[in-house]
Design a protein that fits this description.
Layout: H1 7-20, H2 33-39, H3 44-56, E1 60-63, E2 67-70, E3 91-92, H4 96-106, E4 112-113, H5 126-139, H6 141-145, H7 154-166, E5 177-179, H8 181-193, E6 199-204, H9 208-217, E7 220-227, E8 231-232, H10 234-243, E9 246-251, H11 265-278, E10 282-285, E11 310-315, E12 327-330, H12 336-346, H13 352-363, H14 366-392, E13 398-399, E14 407-411, H15 418-427, E15 430-431, E16 433-434, E17 447-451, H16 458-480
Parallel strand pairs: 4-15, 6-7, 6-9, 9-10, 10-11
Antiparallel strand pairs: 1-2, 3-7, 5-12, 7-8, 11-12, 13-14, 14-17, 16-17
Helix pairs in contact: 1-3, 2-3, 5-13, 7-13, 8-9, 8-12, 14-16
C-alpha cells in the first residue's frame, strides 16, 4: 500500500474505509467541516481537502446549504434479472383476484411497506399543498364547486404543458386532458384505440394496473420481453407485430415498473419509427419520468413522433400527492377527440379542488425544489435497499439497477415461490409484491418487487433481514423435500 504523505490523505482514507465497509451508508450525512476539524484535530483546510478527495472518488457529494452526503456504492453487484422469452400467443388476462389480494396486503398500515410503490407522506410537501388547497377554496371557490370541463382546470393544464416541454416535446394546454391519476389516463387511451377482443402488446413483466385495465376492458395481452437495463425488446416486438394483429402498445420507457429499466434514445427512435410504419398507437406511461437520479430529464417518445402515434400519460401520484389522484393524458391531434369522448363516457370530469391546489403549487415554483430533494432521497433509499438485499438474500439472487424511480425487481434463486414468500412475509408484518401479479398468466413465480419509497429506518433494515432468513428457510425446505 502506498505511503500516506499528507494529513488530508490520512483523513480521507479513514472516511473512505468507513464508507467501503458500510459504517457510513448511502444517504448518511457526514459531520460538518467545522465539527470534523474539531473532533479530528485537523485544520479546516485539511478537512476540506479530504472531502474534496472523496468527492473526486464519487464517494460523497456536497449539497448546497445542507452538507456532505455519502453517495450510493454497490461494490459487488449481483447479476441482472433474466429476460423472459416472448409470449407465443396473446392471452386473456386473469389476475384480477390475485391483484386485489396483494393490493389489500400492501395497504396494511401495520406492515413494513416494502410492497407499495408510493412515496411516503413524509417525503411530500403536504404543508405547502394544504396552503394551496386553502387558498384555492378561498379565492377560486366558484371553480372548486362548479362542474369543470372534461379536459380539466385550465390553469393546471397550462402548468402541465410547461412541464411537458422539459420532456422534449411541445404540448399546448388545449391538447391536454386531466385524469383521475395515470390509471384513468391508461384506461381512456385503451378505450380510444382498441375494441373488445383486440390484442394489446404489453411489456413483460408489466405494471399490474395495465393488466387490470386490459382485463376489465376485455382486451387480450401479448407479452413482449423487457431487458432489465434497456427496456422493451424491440426485435421481439417487431416479430410479434409481423405475426399478430397488434392494435396498441403500452410501454414505459423511463424507469419501468417493476423492472426499473431505462430505454436509450436510439431505441426510442427505433420504437417510434416501427410503430409509425405499422400505424399502431403507442401508449406511453411516464409515471416515474421525473424521478431520474442523474443527468437531464429523459425525453418523451413524443420527441421522435412526427406522425402523432404516441399517446402520453403522466401523473403526480408518484411525485407529489398520491391521494389527490391527478394525472393527465396528451393524446395528440390524431386521438384527441376519441380520448375526449371516452373521458366523457367514463367520468365526465376530474375533481376540481385538487386540480386548483396543484395548479397553485406548480405556479409557485416549489415543485422543482421538491423534486430535487425527493430524487436524492429516493436514490439513496434505492442504494440502501439494494445493498441490504445483496448482503441478506441467498446466493443466486438477481437484482435490477434502476436509474430512477424507487422500485427494485428481484429474481430469487430458482425454485423459490414468491407467493409463499409473500404470505409468510405478511404474517411477519412485511408487505412485498410477488411477481405473478405482473404477468397476465401468473408468471414470474420466482420474482418479487420491493419499494424504496419510504424513509430508511432500522425497521426497514430488519424487515429485509427477515426476508433473507425466510428465503433461506424456503430453500432449505425445498432441498429437504428433494425439490
Amino acid at each position: 500500500m502506498a505511503a500516506i504523505n499528507f494529513a488530508y490523505e490520512e483523513l480521507a482514507a479513514d472516511l473512505e474505509a468507513q464508507i467501503r465497509r458500510g459504517t457510513l451508508r448511502p444517504g448518511d450525512r457526514l459531520p460538518s467541516v467545522r465539527r470534523t476539524s474539531v473532533e479530528q484535530r485537523r485544520s479546516l483546510s485539511t478537512v476540506l481537502e479530504a472531502y474534496r478527495r472523496l468527492e473526486m472518488l464519487r464517494l460523497i457529494e456536497a449539497r448546497p446549504r445542507s452538507g456532505y452526503y455519502v453517495l450510493p456504492q454497490v461494490v459487488e453487484r449481483p447479476p441482472l434479472p433474466l429476460v423472459s422469452p416472448a409470449s407465443p400467443a396473446p392471452t386473456s388476462v386473469g389476475t384480477a383476484a390475485l391483484i386485489a389480494q396483494v393490493v389489500r396486503a400492501v395497504a396494511d398500515p401495520d406492515a413494513v411497506p416494502l410492497g407499495a410503490a408510493l412515496p411516503d407522506a413524509s417525503l411530500l410537501p403536504h404543508a405547502a399543498l394544504k396552503r394551496c388547497m386553502t387558498a384555492a377554496m378561498r379565492f377560486d371557490a366558484p371553480g372548486g364547486v362548479a362542474q369543470v370541463p372534461p379536459e380539466g382546470v385550465e390553469s393546471l393544464r397550462r402548468e402541465i404543458a410547461r412541464r411537458e416541454w422539459s420532456a422534449g416535446h411541445v404540448a399546448y394546454h388545449d391538447e391536454i386532458l386531466v385524469t383521475a391519476g395515470a390509471s384513468e389516463a391508461l384506461d381512456v387511451a385503451l378505450r380510444a384505440t382498441t375494441s373488445p377482443g383486440d390484442i394489446v402488446a404489453v411489456e413483460s413483466p408489466a405494471f399490474f394496473g395495465v393488466l387490470q385495465a386490459i382485463e376489465t376492458l376485455g382486451r387480450r395481452a401479448l407479452d413482449i420481453p423487457v431487458c432489465a437495463e434497456e427496456g422493451i425488446d424491440i426485435d421481439a416486438l417487431e416479430a410479434a407485430i409481423a405475426k399478430h394483429p397488434v392494435r396498441a402498445l403500452i410501454v414505459t420507457p423511463n424507469f419501468h415498473n417493476p423492472v426499473g429499466s431505462y430505454m436509450p434514445d436510439a431505441s426510442r427512435a427505433r420504437l417510434v419509427a416501427l410503430m409509425t410504419e405499422h400505424g399502431i398507437p403507442v401508449i406511453e406511461d411516464d409515471t416515474f419520468g421525473e424521478l431520474y437520479f442523474e443527468g437531464p430529464q429523459p425525453r418523451s417518445l413524443r420527441a421522435w413522433d412526427e406522425a402523432g402515434w404516441v399517446i402520453r400519460c403522466g401523473s403526480f401520484s408518484k411525485t407529489l400527492a398520491p391521494g389527490y389522484r391527478i394525472g393527465w393524458i396528451v393524446p395528440g391531434p390524431r386521438f384527441f377527440e376519441a380520448v375526449r369522448r371516452c373521458k366523457l363516457a367514463t367520468s365526465l370530469g376530474t375533481s376540481a379542488p385538487p386540480q386548483l391546489a396543484l395548479a397553485r403549487y406548480l405556479a409557485g415554483g416549489g415543485y422543482d425544489r421538491h423534486l430535487r430533494q425527493l430524487r436524492r432521497t429516493l436514490r439513496d433509499n434505492v442504494a440502501r435497499l439494494s445493498a441490504e438485499v445483496c448482503s441478506r438474500f441467498p446466493e443466486g439472487t438477481r437484482i435490477s439497477r434502476p436509474r430512477g424511480g424507487f422500485v427494485l425487481w428481484i429474481e430469487l434463486p430458482a425454485g423459490t415461490d414468491a407467493l409463499t414468500l409473500g404470505r409468510r412475509a405478511l404474517a411477519a408484518g412485511i408487505s412485498i409484491c410477488p411477481g405473478p401479479i405482473f404477468s397476465p398468466s401468473g408468471g414470474y413465480r420466482s420474482c418479487i418487487r420491493l419499494s424504496a419509497g419510504h424513509p430508511w429506518s432500522e425497521r426497514t433494515e430488519g424487515a429485509v433481514e427477515k426476508l433473507g432468513r425466510m428465503l433461506m428457510a424456503l430453500m432449505n425446505h425445498g432441498l429437504n423435500l428433494g425439490g
